[in-house]
């Protein structure tokens, strides 16, 4: 039972490059979420999805794009990476949005 | 604007001490408050609280919610070095609003337990 996985686990990129972070879950959860975690800010929601082809902005969506063509995958793309997007990114999922979310292991992204 | 505030931001104790972590919130359409533990990796779920005054307990950890005063506390008794972690509080909302299903997190409390 793989649960929820993220790839890559670590990524170094340069300012201006496009980067895609992958998230895959094996539970068929309807809801999926992307958070970023920075010191002093806790976890902040970037985007979320209630089902395939349904996505919505969170608290800090600028500079990010998401898609959800399949229930199990929820990729997050940084269209043109900036240094301020250096962070740890967590993907999470839940069945209905009414109970606890389960988190992936995180992707540590460094933008030079 | 919805707000979740945790205190203290960091805490250093010795093994065997009892600690109390606080989480206050101002959220429209509040439904539940959740506590997570994060040890240098993904947050792991501890408790979900929806009703005021009912204590949730798991081993040495317990938590309670006060919906009138809009806060929750997480207690850890007889702390151990393995309790060292960041403790995160989050709130979610009732269905029907635009924020349904989206968690708002506090900044976290960094707990360090020395032997």
Give a written overview of the molecule.
The complex is a heterodimer of chains A (112) and B (115). Chain A starts with a strand and ends with a strand. Chain A has 112 residues and is an all-beta fold. Chain A is built from no helices and eleven strands. Chain A is globular and about 35 Å long. Chain A has one domain: Immunoglobulins (Immunoglobulin-like). In chain A, the strands form two sheets. In chain A, strands 2, 4, 5, 6, 9, 10 and 11 form a seven-stranded mixed beta sheet that branches. In chain A, strands 1-3-8-7 form a four-stranded antiparallel beta sheet, with no helix packed on it. Chain B contains no helices and eleven strands. Helix content of chain B is 0%, strand content 57%. Chain B is mainly beta. In chain B, the strands form two sheets. In chain B, strands 2, 4, 5, 9, 10 and 11 form a six-stranded mixed beta sheet that branches. Chain B has a five-stranded antiparallel beta sheet with strand order 1-3-8-7-6, with no helix packed on it. In chain B, 34% of the residues are buried. Chain B is globular, with a radius of gyration of 14 Å. The chains are: A mainly beta (112), B mainly beta (115). The interface between A and B is medium-sized, with 26 and 23 residues.
Layout of strands and helices, then pairs:
The complex is a heterodimer of chains A (112) and B (115).
Chain A: E1 4-7, E2 10-13, E3 19-25, E4 31-38, E5 42-51, E6 54-57, E7 64-66, E8 76-78, E9 87-94, E10 102-103, E11 107-111
Parallel strand pairs in A: 2-11
Antiparallel strand pairs in A: 1-3, 3-8, 4-5, 4-9, 5-6, 7-8, 9-10, 9-11
Chain B: E1 3-7, E2 10-14, E3 19-26, E4 30-38, E5 44-49, E6 56-58, E7 61-66, E8 71-76, E9 85-93, E10 104-105, E11 109-114
Parallel strand pairs in B: 2-11
Antiparallel strand pairs in B: 1-3, 3-8, 4-5, 4-9, 6-7, 7-8, 9-10, 9-11
């Amino acid at each position: 039972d793989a649960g929820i996985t993220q790839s890559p686990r670590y990524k170094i990129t340069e300012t201006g490059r496009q980067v895609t972070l992958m998230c895959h879950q094996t539970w068929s959860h309807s809801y999926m979420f992307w958070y970023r975690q920075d010191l002093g800010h806790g976890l902040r929601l970037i985007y979320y999805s209630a089902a395939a082809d349904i996505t919505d902005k969170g608290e800090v969506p600028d500079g990010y794009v998401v898609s959800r063509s399949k229930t199990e995958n929820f990729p997050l793309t940084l269209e043109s990476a900036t240094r301020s997007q250096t962070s740890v990114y967590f993907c999470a999922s839940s069945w209905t949005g009414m109970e606890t979310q389960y988190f992936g292991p995180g992707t540590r992204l460094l933008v030079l | 604007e919805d707000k979740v505030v945790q205190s203290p931001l960091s805490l250093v104790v010795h093994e065997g001490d009892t600690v109390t972590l606080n989480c206050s919130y101002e959220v429209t359409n509040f439904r539940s408050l959740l506590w997570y533990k994060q040890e240098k990796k993904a947050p792991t779920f501890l408790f979900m609280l929806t009703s005021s005054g009912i204590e949730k307990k798991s081993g040495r950890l317990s938590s309670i919610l006060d919906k009138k005063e809009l806060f929750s506390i997480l207690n850890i008794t007889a702390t151990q070095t393995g309790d060292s972690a960041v403790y995160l509080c989050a709130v979610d909302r009732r269905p029907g609003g635009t924020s349904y299903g989206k968690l708002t997190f506090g900044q976290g409390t960094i707990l360090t337990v020395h032997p």
